């Protein structure tokens, strides 16, 4: 059916308006870019932001400039954080249960949308078995795999949410590891009504780590009396960065102090090549409480090798533990201070040297592999330590 003259006119007007809006948008962005300095880092997303791409005949012809410019526009868009918050708010108002990156749970909980690679999990369990064999009979090796909030706090998930089969993965680990294994599922479920996982972050809280420590030690309650100290009530974690919801309340971070422990526990951080990069008076890095990445208050974040002075008590004499870990171990490790003379934490994402040699050089008597289940099913670095 042929269009009437008035219909054609309306289409032309719409096309002109669309072109004008697009032109205003482009020029508005360019003007804002000239007036405002580019940001190099996003505190909200805890990552470096894209810089203006290099222009050359090669980058233009290859399409690299176009791709780089698209990323640059996305990262440097004025009021990006506010627009992200507005978008997420509209999605929730429309009844959506996720934004493609996080699930909108009950009571302000945000759950990461993750995948679970069963084949990689099987390989990694095998690599851990191999690493333990390489350590030799003189070093006691143990494994602790932590369920995530998605598994333990199922009652807070939105209805009909599709989540990875953590139960199947954890059961596979339990059945196939040759190491002493600590199964945390029952322990954490018993305390699911407590504040054992952050609402805005993917990590467990220090309280969750304390319950895990007690289970690992075989104690229903800690034999020590801890004093909980609030160090921040303004923590917005990684899941918040994916949603940026202004209605979400911040999390609180606590440390647990042992009043009976008068000792200092200095910490040394080493690069992968063995060079000393940082020294701190304790396992807590106060500088991170002033930035968004407040979880890095524990152990000063992710580093290749971290050495911590433990206890000088007779009970800890000669006991040295290596924790091969992801970041779930960071708020767990302070509970080890009274049990060991020295603690060495190793992050295989950044350390590729001989793990067995490192253990022998430092007189390690125990090794604890500590990962959350989703990281264990995705990590591709354990193979290097198993070779």
Descriptive tags:
alpha/beta; 14 strands; 387 residues; two-stranded antiparallel sheet; 18% strand; single chain
What does this structure look like?
With 387 residues, the protein is an alpha/beta fold. The protein has 2 domains: 5-93, no CATH class; 116-386, no CATH class. Helix content is 35%, strand content 18%. The protein has 13 helices and 14 strands. The strands form 4 sheets. The chain has an 8-stranded mixed beta sheet. The chain has a two-stranded antiparallel ribbon with strand order 1-2. The chain has a two-stranded antiparallel ribbon with strand order 3-4. The longest helix is centred in the N-terminal third of the chain and has 31 residues, at 5-35. The N and C termini lie far apart (72 Å). The relative contact order is 0.12. The mean pLDDT is 87.
């Amino acid at each position: 059916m042929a269009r009437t003259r008035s219909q054609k006119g309306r289409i032309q007007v719409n096309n002109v308006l669309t072109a004008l809006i697009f032109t205003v948008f482009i020029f508005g962005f360019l003007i804002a870019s000239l007036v405002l300095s580019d940001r190099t880092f996003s505190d909200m997303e805890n990552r470096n932001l894209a810089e203006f791409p290099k222009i050359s005949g090669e980058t233009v012809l290859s399409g690299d400039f176009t791709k780089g410019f698209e990323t640059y526009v996305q990262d440097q868009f004025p009021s990006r954080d506010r627009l992200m918050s507005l978008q997420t708010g509209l999605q929730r108002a429309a009844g959506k249960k996720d934004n493609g990156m996080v699930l909108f749970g009950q009571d302000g909980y945000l759950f990461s949308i993750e995948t679970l690679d069963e084949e990689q999990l099987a390989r990694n369990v095998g690599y851990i078995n191999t690493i333990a064999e390489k350590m030799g009979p003189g070093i006691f090796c143990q494994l602790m795999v932590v369920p995530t909030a998605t598994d333990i706090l199922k009652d807070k998930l939105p209805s009909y949410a599709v989540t990875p089969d953590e139960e199947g993965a954890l059961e596979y680990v339990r059945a196939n590891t040759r190491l002493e294994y600590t199964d945390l599922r029952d322990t954490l479920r018993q305390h699911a009504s407590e504040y054992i996982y952050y609402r805005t972050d993917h990590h467990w809280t220090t309280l969750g780590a304390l319950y895990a420590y007690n289970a690992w030690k075989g104690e229903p309650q800690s034999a020590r009396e801890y004093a909980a100290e609030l160090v921040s009530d303004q923590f917005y974690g990684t899941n918040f960065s994916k949603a940026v919801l202004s209605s979400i309340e911040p999390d609180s971070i606590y440390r647990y102090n042992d009043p009976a422990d008068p000792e200092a526990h200095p910490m040394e951080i080493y690069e992968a090549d063995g060079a000393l990069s940082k020294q701190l008076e304790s396992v807590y890095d106060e500088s991170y409480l002033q930035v968004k990445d407040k979880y890095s208050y524990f152990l000063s974040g992710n580093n290749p090798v971290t050495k911590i002075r433990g206890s000088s008590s007779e009970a800890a004499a000669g006991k040295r533990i290596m924790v091969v870990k992801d970041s779930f171990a960071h708020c767990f490790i302070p509970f080890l201070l009274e049990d060991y003379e020295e603690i060495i934490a190793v992050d295989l994402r950044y350390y590729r040297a001989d793990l067995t040699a490192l253990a022998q050089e430092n007189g390690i008597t125990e090794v604890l592999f500590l990962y959350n289940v989703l990281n264990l099913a995705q990590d591709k670095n354990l193979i290097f330590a198993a070779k």
